[in-house]
Amino acid sequence: MIDSKYRNKNLQVFNNDNVVTEGWYWALQSKELKTGKAKPVRLSGKDLAIFRTESGKVVAMDAYCPHRGAHLAGGTVEGEALRCYYHHWKFNEKGKCVDVPCLKKAPKAEVSTYPAEDHYGLIWVWVGQGKPHELPIVPDLEGHDVDVTFAKPYVKNCHPNIVMSDAIDVQHFRSVHRIPGNILHIEGKKVNDNTLRYDNVAAMPTDTIIGRLLAPFYKTQLTYSLCYWGGCAGSVTVGPDFQRYHIIYANRLGDNGVSEGQVILLTKRSKNVLGRMYGKALLGATRIVSDYFANGDTPQFDSINFDFKTPIKDDKTILTFMSHVEGLPVADWGFSKPNKIDSVDLSPAFSSNRKQTEGEACTIS
Ligand code: FES
Ligand SMILES: [Fe+2]
């Protein structure tokens, strides 16, 4: 029997506009942050000043100066520190005030800072009280240098959890993207408390001409692998055995419940010039794949009023994701207040209980 706890009214974390779960979130593209410059960023209800020091380090701090509240992104980078434009108070990379021009000794004043990293072409900021997780890594690309480019950033009129549930919505590949047959058999497997993986286990069907042409390029299963970090970001890996395409969808919750997203396209970096040129062409092809799927989904992202009233067996993948998100730690950040949250235990989505062991498949009751 399907569990009715998946109704919107019963959820405390999933698809909640006032909740930000712990994790790494994108702030801006790396190329937008030049050495010695600062930028204003609003990340899920919190205003930040993010700057790149003269040595290239990225620092993320609360936006408003602890003197009189000027936005610190309007200031000037000096070495490894940022000087407020208004009265020239200077804050080091840990947020401590170290110089006030009209005083011999700086007063006790500081601004909060947050872990920030330059990774896969984005500046990521750690949101949460706990120790920062490992940065998101596409499993196939672990240990490799990569080349990255971006598809168009987007704003969708729904929560990031809803955007992320699209790529594991097995039914919609037939209805929206017109992929014939029943080619996907995926199940969510918990890698750790923060990470879910879905890997297709079905072979390329050979009942169509296209299927018969493509089948020799897939030794075992048709590649469709996803790795989800928390509830707002994840990677999709597709393509034949000799050439995989990797796409990361990185979302953050914006004001008024929208999703603000970046699409990173990745490929392994070649050591020679010809290989680099091929890689560039490959990223172009990846963009075509990504745009095709994104365009098909846009209408529903802009109008959906998500409420899972009638899940069916094919929706098991989404229920697994919902259970996962509902159990994530909530951050004290922007419009998210963890002490007001009493998350719902959706454990029936898993075959045993919430303390699922690594690699175990998830099933609905
Ligand atoms: S407001 Fe920043 S130094 Fe006065
Ligand atoms: Fe889709």
Question: How would you describe what is shown here?
Answer:
It is a single chain. This protein has 365 residues and is α+β, with helices and mostly antiparallel strands. The protein has 2 domains: 227 residues, Alpha-D-Glucose-1,6-Bisphosphate, Chain A, domain 4, CATH 3.30.530; 98 residues, Rieske [2Fe-2S] iron-sulphur domain (Rieske Iron-sulfur Protein, 3-layer Sandwich). The chain is 16% helix and 26% strand. Strands 12, 13, 14, 15, 16, 17, 18 and 19 form an 8-stranded antiparallel sheet that branches. Fe (ii) ion binds next to α4. The site of FE2/S2 (inorganic) cluster (FES) has 8 residues, from loops.
Total beta-strand segments = 19
Separation of the first and last Cα atoms: 6 Å
CATH homologous superfamily title of the largest domain: START domain
List of distinct ligands in this structure: FE2/S2 (inorganic) cluster, fe (ii) ion
The number of domains is 2
Q: What is the CATH topology of the largest domain?
A: Alpha-D-Glucose-1,6-Bisphosphate, Chain A, domain 4
- Percent helix, as a range, is 10-25%
Q: Can you write the helix and strand succession as a string? A: EEEEEEEEEEEEEHHEEHEEEEHH
CATH architecture of the largest domain: 2-Layer Sandwich
Given the C-alpha coordinates, what overall shape results? globular
Level-1 CATH class name of the largest domain: Alpha Beta
Strand content: 25-35%
Task: Please work out how many helical segments DSSP would assign.
Answer: 5
User: Main sheet, how many strands, which sense, barrel?
Assistant: 8 strands, antiparallel
Secondary-structure-derived class: alpha+beta
Contiguous low-pLDDT stretches (5 residues minimum) are 350-365
